[in-house]
Structures are given as C-alpha cells and as structure tokens.
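Retro notes
What went well: the complex prediction finally ran end to end.
Inputs used:
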Amino acid sequence: PKTHRVMTLADHISHIITQDFARNQ
Amino acid sequence: PCPVSVASRSGQQIWESFSQCFTPAVREVVEFAKGIPGFQELSQQDQVMLLKSGTFQVLMVRFCALLNPEERTVTFLNGQTYPQSTLRGLGMGTLLDAMFDFSENLGALRLEPDEIALFMAVVLVSADRSGISDTAAVEQLQEGLIHALRSLIHRRCPEQSAAIFPKLLLRLPDLRTLNNLHSDKLLAFRID
C-alpha cells in the first residue's frame, strides 16, 4: 500500500539542508 | 516548475506535487547562500543554522516573483496560472494571503533583480541567531551586506534611496512573522 509522510515545511527545509551538507562533506 | 494540474487529480495528489516543489527550491537557496561572499567562511555549523532558520524567508522573497498581487494569481514556472481561491483549497490559505500582502509591499519598492538578490542575502544572514556559535562573524557579514545593499540602491536612485532603503529593511520583520506563523505548515510526501 502507498504510504504518506507528512512533515512541516520547516522540517522539510531542515532535512534538505542537512542532506545537502552531508553529501558535500 | 510545479506540475500542479487541478483538473484530473485528487486533493492529496495536488498536495504532494505542491510539496515536491519545495525540494528544488530549497536546494537553490543552499546554492545561493554558498555564493554569498563570506558565507562559506562561517563555520559549517553556523552555515547550516542560518540556512535552517532563514531559507523559508528567502523562499518567500523568491516566490514574490510568481505572485501577481493585482490579479491575485500565482503563475508557476511551468506557465500554469492559478487564482488565489483555487490554491486556498490546498490548505495554504492564510500563508497565501500573507504572501500576497508581502509581495505587494515588496513590489511597491520597484527593486531591480540584483537589489532583490542582495536583499535575499541580507535576509539569510539576518535570520534567527539562536544556535549560532560565532554571532560576531555573522553580524560582521550582515553589516557588510547591508552596506552593499544601501550603496547599490543609492547608486541607482540617489534621490529616492533615503526612502526606499528603510522601507526595504522593514520587510525583514515581516518575513520573520511569516516564518513564525507559517513554517509549521504541513507538507505531504508519498512513499511508494
């Protein structure tokens, strides 16, 4: 079954920023 | 680009594609920040903290370009235009209302693209400082950017810059209010 992940805009922004900096280390 | 097409899709699907729009937009703000002279001299932790607290506000300034306050419409990069009423149904009603008001105020200053870009840099380094380890370095960076912004506006319109510049700085608290009121809006992502 399809599942959905719900997160706040702020958490989504933080998630992408953390991901970006981790990738570029 | 936002692949939102209202006709054939459920509210949930529209919500998910609208949510997807934020991912590339956030990445672009991260790249923009790395291009700000002096930003990458900050510690990596401070860079991350500023981005986490300032990105939403920078996005609000960027999204102004999509909004037409007179006609109350939003035109996404794929050319699709939606009246505010349609998008209000997505659950972002109060945020959209606030964005239209902010867009109207910022638009009234008739800034050039380079002035808006420098303003976005000021917005980012003026973000909430809790969690910043070297506040002095951030403040120094902020002062330099504000000075550059004032000079840029003064060079373009010496006689009006005395009026425009203070009005522009007054947009900073507006953005912080937008952030405090709306960054807890919910997004939805489908996980297949």
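What we learned: The radius of gyration of chain A is 12 Å.
What to try next: split runs per interface for comparison.
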